[in-house]
Write a structure and sequence with these properties.
five-stranded antiparallel sheet, four-stranded antiparallel sheet, mainly beta, about 170 residues, elongated
């Protein structure tokens, strides 16, 4: 189901040895010593969203040829899994990032919210949102359905205390 070979993808062996897939999506590591190895594919889009796939573990034995088939989801599949049934036609933005403390550690327990205003005819303005998420353990957050091209306020909340809103326009 949608598993077409992908050329020019970077494949890592134990995060140190790298090769690129050929036009048929194939790759090869040679002269491996006996043992267990972790194999993973780098996908810049998914990696930048903090949604990297876990390594595939396999065993190499003397004289054997080991093969592994690596599959990774498309960006559309990942967004459907992460965002659910968000209507991207009206608010097509995705806000993703990492929240960290001054020490560089993940900001555990923090909630990130995005809110914005919408004009409904004349001068009526209505607050929309908030779109809210809790951070993952590594500090990553992903908010779906954020409007593009108009101001949004991003707020963090920790232990019931809300930060000062930061205003941005996503494009």
């Amino acid at each position: 189901e949608g598993s077409e070979p992908v050329k020019e993808v970077l494949v890592l062996l134990d995060d140190s040895t790298r090769v690129r897939t050929d036009e048929d999506g194939r790759f090869r590591f040679t002269s491996l010593v006996e043992g267990y190895y972790g194999l993973r594919v780098l996908n810049p889009v998914l990696d930048s969203l903090g949604l990297s796939a876990e390594p595939v573990l396999f065993e190499v034995r003397p004289g054997d040829v080991a093969s592994a088939r690596l599959l990774f989801p498309s960006l559309d599949t990942v967004l459907t899994e992460e965002c659910g049934s968000v209507d991207f036609s009206e608010n097509g933005g995705i806000l993703a990032g990492f929240a960290r403390l001054d020490t560089g550690e993940p900001a555990s327990g923090v909630r990130i919210s995005v809110r914005w205003r919408v004009r409904l005819g004349g001068f009526t303005s209505v607050d929309r949102g908030p779109t809210t998420t809790e951070l993952r353990e590594d500090g990553f957050f992903l908010l779906c359905g954020v409007p593009l091209g108009r101001p949004v306020e991003i707020v963090s909340e920790w232990n019931g205390v809300e930060s000062r809103p930061e205003r941005y326009v996503l494009s």
